């Protein structure tokens, strides 16, 4: 299951719970969804920083051109 599928399922559960009186569970699911999005955004930003620091594309190209 990828990130979008996880988020979609959480949002579906949240919308179903909006029709019930179970505010606690709805709030918990909303917090989980927000935490996941925040974590994914931070992970993506970190991966981008690593790519930039290592000059990933150029490094991979150079490694591909090594002849043994």
Taken from the alpha-carbon principal axes, the silhouette is rod-shaped
Q: What string, H for helix and E for strand, traces the elements in order?
A: HHH
Would you tell me the overall average pLDDT? 86
Describe the sheet with the most strands: none
Total DSSP E strands: 0
Report what the structure shows.
By secondary structure, the chain is mostly helical. Helix content is about 80%, strand content about 0%. It has helices at about 5-15, 25-55, 55-65. The radius of gyration is 20 Å and the shape is rod-shaped.
Strands, helices and their partners?
Blueprint: H1 3-17, H2 23-54, H3 56-64
Outline:
The chain contains 3 helices and no strands. The longest helix is centred in the middle third of the chain and has 32 residues.
Which tags fit this structure?
82% helix; 0% strand; mainly alpha; 68 residues
